[in-house]
Design brief:
The protein contains 3 helices and 2 strands, in the order H-E-H-E-H. The protein is mainly alpha-helical. The chain is elongated, with a radius of gyration of 18 Å.
Length: 112
């Protein structure tokens, strides 16, 4: 699951960077990655469907109002989202590294 969350944060980083790059492109609509809500529904439903089948979805944001040029990217909001995503990605990577180190110690028979 941590590997999947790490992959999602990488995809989200690419999408957010694309939004920032197109902040002044007339008619550009910001994109967003949807995954966590679907994950929460799957975990809450107690269904036996494997979590491996969950895929992030890149969708166009239809809720944010557009400017006169048809663009709906707000640079301050995108930078905030980019910072949040970076922190989440770093957290997931640290958790993954810790888990792998624990597994390595268990396999080699060394104690903490």
């Amino acid at each position: 699951m941590l590997a999947k969350l790490t992959d999602v944060t990488q995809l989200r980083h690419q999408v957010l960077a694309q939004n920032v790059a197109n902040v002044n492109t007339p008619g550009y609509r910001r994109l967003e990655v949807r995954f966590e809500d679907t994950l929460a529904e799957q975990l809450g439903s107690r269904a036996d469907a494997p979590l491996k089948t969950l895929r992030p979805e890149v969708v166009e944001d239809q809720t944010t109002p557009t400017r006169l040029d048809g663009n709906n990217v707000e640079i301050d909001t995108e930078m905030m989202r980019l910072n949040k995503n970076t922190l989440l990605g770093n957290t997931y990577l640290q958790l993954l590294a810790t888990k792998l180190a624990m597994m390595k110690r268990a396999v080699s028979g060394r104690s903490v």
